[in-house]
Structure formats: structure tokens, C-alpha cells
Amino acid sequence: MSLPGTPFSIFVALLAAATACTHFMTPNPLFVRNLIDFSLTFSSSVIPSTIPYKLERSHHNHHHDKKTIQNICDDFAPDFPPPDTNTTSILCVDRNGCCNFTTVQSAVDAVGNFSAKRTTVWINSGIYFEKVIVPKTKPNITFQGQGYASTAIVWNDTANSSHGTFYSGSVQVFATNFIAKNISFMNVAPIPLPGDVGAQAVAIRVAGDQAAFWGCGFFGFQDTLHDDRGRHYFKDCYIQGSIDFIFGNGKSFYENCQLNSMANPVPAGVKSINGAVTANGRASMDENSGFAFVNCSLGGTGRIWLGRAWRPFSRVVFAYTFMSDIVAPEGWNDFNDPMRDQTIFYGEYMCTGGGANTTMRLPYVQRLNDTQASPYLNMSFIDADQWLQPYT
Ligand SMILES: *[C@@H]1O[C@H](CO)[C@@H](O)[C@H](O)[C@H]1NC(C)=O
Ligand SMILES: *[C@@H]1O[C@H](CO)[C@@H](O)[C@H](O)[C@H]1NC(C)=O
Ligand SMILES: *[C@@H]1O[C@H](CO)[C@@H](O)[C@H](O)[C@H]1NC(C)=O
Ligand SMILES: *[C@@H]1O[C@H](CO)[C@@H](O)[C@H](O)[C@H]1NC(C)=O
Ligand SMILES: *[C@@H]1O[C@H](CO)[C@@H](O)[C@H](O)[C@H]1NC(C)=O
Ligand SMILES: *[C@@H]1O[C@H](CO)[C@@H](O)[C@H](O)[C@H]1NC(C)=O
Ligand SMILES: *[C@@H]1O[C@H](CO)[C@@H](O)[C@H](O)[C@H]1NC(C)=O
Ligand SMILES: *[C@@H]1O[C@H](CO)[C@@H](O)[C@H](O)[C@H]1NC(C)=O
Ligand SMILES: *[C@@H]1O[C@H](CO)[C@@H](O)[C@H](O)[C@H]1NC(C)=O
Ligand SMILES: *[C@@H]1O[C@H](CO)[C@@H](O)[C@H](O)[C@H]1NC(C)=O
Ligand SMILES: *[C@@H]1O[C@H](CO)[C@@H](O)[C@H](O)[C@H]1NC(C)=O
After folding, report:
1. Residue whose CA is closest, atom 1 of ligand 10?
2. Does the Cβ of 215 fall within 6 Å of ligand 7?
3. If you measure from the C-alpha of residue 139 to the centroid of ligand 4, how many angstroms do you get, rounded to a whole number?
4. Nearest residue CA, atom 2 of ligand 8?
5. How many CA within 13 A on the CB side of residue 156?
6. Tag placement on the chain: N or C end, fewer CB within 10 Å?
7. DSSP 261
8. 3-class state of residue 228 by DSSP
9. CA 339 – CA 323 distance, rounded (Å)
10. Domains present along the chain, CATH in parentheses
11. How many A from CA of 211 to the centre of ligand 7?
12. Rg (CA), the chain
């Protein structure tokens, strides 16, 4: 609501982009339709917000015509949210004011510092225009949305507007044990033009250890997902961007995710590169970080690299992943620093699709054998048995 008018153009742009990339291959054939529904859902949830429709609960039971007074809160079960138990607490967020909180941040603020309980912040459908911070003092928070195409936290900071890329995230998580389910994180700053400086716009920064994302969406262009530090799990997520759209020094396992390149379409025959999926920031041999993608799919537009070596010991593996032919034959980039060729670890294993042909890959790219690939193929990569709770 603080950004009147902004969403419509952005969602129209998203919609146009989604329908333009008809060759996008994905395990979920409903993707384009989902994105269309997404725009429509959001548009319709924004439009009525200019009308003062929030009415008192049960008001209409007494007088008048039921049809003329419709209570938007009627869908809420009267006993929701349930009372706290000794292990969990649920806080309810609804932008229309149907339960305790109207913003996500106000719910986060109400969580006790260093609570040992898990607090689920239940977030109703709609767009929440706010910048959200989950501070270090608030471990064990879950954001539960109603679907990545129905619930989103959206802001529009850029590197320029927020003292640097690292602070531009619409959501920033510094706490440990953070979980997000069925919700999207979006940055709707203007799409960077080629050569733009300071236009990086992060959707979420994940800077706490032991974070898990299930069925989430990440929407942006340059630097969408700041996988900053700590061990992270992403399952069934949709991640879109153009340049370095998954970047940082986290140690992360991406399973069954859809990666969608939004780089400008490149005409056949043109060899220039205009996008990169990853920019992993592993800086030294001592660091245990890296990104593993397993059973994912990569499509969209542009002519892109799978990764570029933001730091000298950058480490990324793609396994069992479908890649469309938007991936340039050389595959990867050393950030124009040949010294890094000795220290980066870029591996591919059992990938399929036109972009997965490794014949023309640069010499430092590793075609992993079974033994070399095995540490990257399951959740033991992120010590999941020590912390990851099954999805419930
Ligand atoms: C974010 O959107 C608001 C409202 O449209 C606008 O005033 C502001 O300049 C935008 N910020 C950036 C960095 O684009
Ligand atoms: C939590 O509550 C349950 C009953 O609801 C009780 O059996 C259990 O002992 C309690 N646990 C603690 C740690 O208080
Ligand atoms: C939520 O609202 C209910 C009823 O208005 C109130 O009893 C309860 O204390 C509130 N909970 C929080 C966490 O603010
Ligand atoms: C958490 O701690 C901060 C200061 O560190 C304080 O300002 C805030 O009120 C505390 N929040 C709660 C819910 O206790
Ligand atoms: C809460 O967070 C602390 C510190 O990160 C952790 O030790 C504890 O296991 C967490 N509790 C739950 C219920 O997740
Ligand atoms: C960011 O700020 C720099 C310096 O003020 C300016 O040159 C540049 O155009 C700005 N970038 C964007 C995308 O506004
Ligand atoms: C929520 O995410 C889970 C895990 O990815 C998925 O199985 C489920 O269908 C999603 N639910 C909704 C309502 O989107
Ligand atoms: C892989 O690329 C090479 C060189 O461009 C080509 O000769 C070969 O036929 C391709 N392999 C497949 C399976 O498409
Ligand atoms: C895999 O590659 C490594 C390193 O080149 C080699 O030492 C090992 O013998 C290979 N293992 C298999 C099963 O081929
Ligand atoms: C996961 O991978 C590790 C090491 O690569 C291996 O030891 C373990 O057996 C695997 N676990 C499963 C469930 O496949
Ligand atoms: C990847 O998919 C294969 C085939 O469906 C399955 O056997 C394997 O367990 C999956 N691995 C992960 C990490 O999801």
C-alpha cells in the first residue's frame, strides 16, 4: 500500500516475460499459467484496497441485506489462530486487518527475543509492501504463506537506495532456524539497463544458519537471491533473475527448483553473454561453502553462464538438472581472472538438455564421476540430519 501503482506495471512485465519464453522447459508445465494467475491474484487483491471495506465482524448478521455488506473476514475461522502450545506459537498476519497483524514486520517484532519455541507467522494471501528484517535475536521463526503465487513480501530497494547490494533485500534474515513455506520474496525495483551501476536489487538475504525454504518464489533481476552465509535448503522453489541471481557464500542445497533466466533474449548467432545464474562467493580453501543444485531445471531467456567466480574458491555443482540451450557452450566464467582457474570448483553431473552438452566447456570445468559427485547429491551436503525438520 505504500507503493501505490507500482505493482501493476511490474506484474505486467512479469506476465509479458513469462508468456514470451514459451520454450521454457520445466517439471511444472503449469508454470506460465501460475505466473498469470499470480499477477491476477495480486492485481485483484490490490485494487479493492482503496475501498474501505473492512467491516466489523458479525455486523451483517443483525440488520439489512447480506448481499450488500460482504465481510472480507468471513473466511477466517473464529478460532484462528489457535492458542500457543508449550512448543509452538502462531501469529496471524492479514493485510485487510482480519487478524492480529497487518504487516509481517509487526508480527516479527512481537516474537520474544531468543524464544526456544517455534513461532509460525501465518501470512494470508496478498502482497505485503514492506521491508522485513528478521534480526539475530529471533531464531525459530517460520513464515507460512498460502502459496508462492498468492502471498508475497515485496519491496523495491536497490544497491543505490540502500547503501549497497547487501542491504537492498526486501526481506533480510539474520536469525538461525528460519523457515519459509509457500511464500514469495520479490524486489520490484526497475529492471537494470545494460551498464547500469547501483541497480542491483535483492529479494531476500539469507544470513542465518540452518534456513529452509519450501515451495517459495524468488523474484528479481540482478542479484535476486542473496544466499549469504550458513547452511540452507531450498526445495520446490521458483527462482528468477538475470545476472548473478543466486549469489553469496552460503552452503546450500537446491532440490527440484526451477531457475528462470530473465536476461534479454539474444538473437541466434550472437555470442555475447548477458546473464549468469550463480556468483558463489567462496573466498578461501578453508571455507566450507558452495551451492549444489540437484534435480532442478534451468530455462528462460538470454545467453548465460551457469556461474561466475565472484571469489577465487567459488564452488558450484549442477547434477541431474535439465538445462535449456540458453547456457553458453563454455558454461562458466572465471571473472576474467585466470588465476582463479586453479582454485574454483565448477562441476556438472548427469545433466540433460541442450545447455548440458559439456563438449565445449572451459578446461577447468569438471565432468564429475560418481565418487566426485556424491558429496553434492543429497542433503548430507548441508548436514541436514543435524537440523532440517521434515516438511509438515
Ligand atoms: C520505490 O517505489 C517508490 C514508490 O513508487 C518510489 O518512490 C521509489 O523511488 C522506488 N525506489 C526505487 C529505488 O526505485
Ligand atoms: C507440553 O505440553 C504437554 C501437554 O500439552 C505436556 O504433556 C508436556 O509435558 C509439556 N512439555 C513441557 C516441556 O512442558
Ligand atoms: C490477538 O488478538 C486477540 C483478540 O483480539 C487477542 O486476544 C490476542 O492477545 C492477540 N494476540 C496477539 C499475539 O497480539
Ligand atoms: C528484543 O530485544 C530488543 C533489544 O535487543 C528490544 O528492543 C525488543 O523490545 C525486544 N523484543 C521483545 C518482543 O521482547
Ligand atoms: C531455537 O533456536 C535455538 C538457537 O538457534 C536452537 O538451539 C533450538 O533448537 C531452536 N528450537 C526450535 C524449536 O527450533
Ligand atoms: C546509482 O548512483 C550512481 C551515483 O550517484 C549513479 O551514477 C547511478 O546512475 C545510479 N544508478 C541507478 C540505477 O540509479
Ligand atoms: C507448499 O509447498 C509445498 C512444498 O513445496 C508443496 O508441496 C505444496 O503444494 C505447497 N502448497 C501450496 C498451497 O502452494
Ligand atoms: C555436443 O556438442 C558438440 C560440439 O558442439 C557436438 O559435436 C555434439 O554433437 C553435441 N552432442 C550432443 C549430444 O548434442
Ligand atoms: C573419479 O575421479 C577421481 C579424480 O580424478 C579419481 O581419483 C577416481 O578414481 C575416479 N573414480 C571413479 C569411480 O572413476
Ligand atoms: C548421501 O551422501 C553421502 C556422502 O556423499 C553418503 O555417504 C550417504 O550414504 C548418502 N545418503 C543417502 C541417503 O543417499
Ligand atoms: C532426484 O530425482 C531422482 C529421480 O526421481 C531421485 O531418485 C533422487 O532421489 C532425487 N534426488 C534428490 C536429491 O532430490
Report:
1. 378
2. yes
3. 13
4. 359
5. 15
6. C
7. E
8. coil
9. 28
10. 83-386 (2.160.20.10)
11. 17
12. 22
Active site residue 223: no
Is any atom of ligand 4 closer than 6 Å to the C-beta of 114? Answer: no
Residue 350 CA, distance from chain mean position:
25
The protein residue with its alpha carbon nearest to ligand 1, atom 1, reads: 156
Atom of ligand 9 minimally distant from the CA of 369: 1
- Cell, residue 325: 540451450
Do 263 and 242 contact (CB within 8 A), yes or no?
Answer: yes
Pocket of ligand 10, candidates 317, 320, 374: which has the most ligand atoms within 8 Å of its Cβ, to mutate? 374
Which member of 37, 244, 383, 385 is catalytic? 244
